[in-house]
Amino acid sequence: MRLRTSRSYQSKRTKDKTIIFDFDGVLADSFEMFYSLISQSMYFAGLTISRAQYRNLFLGNIHEEFIKFLKTEEKYKLFTDFRSNNYDRHYARTKLFDEVVNFLQQIKESYFIAIASSGKRDAIVKLLQKNRIKHYFDLICATDKMTKENMLMDIISKSGNNSRETIMVTDTVGDLVVAKKIGIKTVAVTWGFHSAKTLKSAKPDYIARNFKILRKQLEII
Q: Any one cellular component term from GO for this entry (predicted)?
């Protein structure tokens, strides 16, 4: 799958560090929105899911975990059809965390900035455009057609920086495991889908409890 750039750059290596952000739970305050969508989709398939169960799906590959949770192809199809048909309506309620715009304004000239998300690209782009910050991102990779590992490797290739010069910022254990597997430094943020205690189990390189701390950590990595 070919990734599209969000802003042009003259050469592949214009900035010596790449930051890859997971989007939902890191930049977008979307847990409750997604839980509402997923719980309704599960109900349509004849199942229920608690907030804790939903969070636990992100301990591994989220798509594989959904398949395991739903157990049968019939229930999985009912679930995915309902989720797809109602995704945009739910996501329209999503907002960025309050500090995001100012944070990105402070770092945008210093790093090659990318998004790696399993969410819908069009919905993410629409939210970024609404907040007038889409042009802050060099790459936006958002799809459920690629594994997170393949997304990260593709972004690394296009950024011109290697894995040692790349930082993954995420709020889930599943992402931390993938990033560490391919040698990317990791920062876990505690305001998203997983708690600080859960994130520590995956041994991230750094843990950020707010955007001010996150910015300082990015500067020293």
A: cytosol
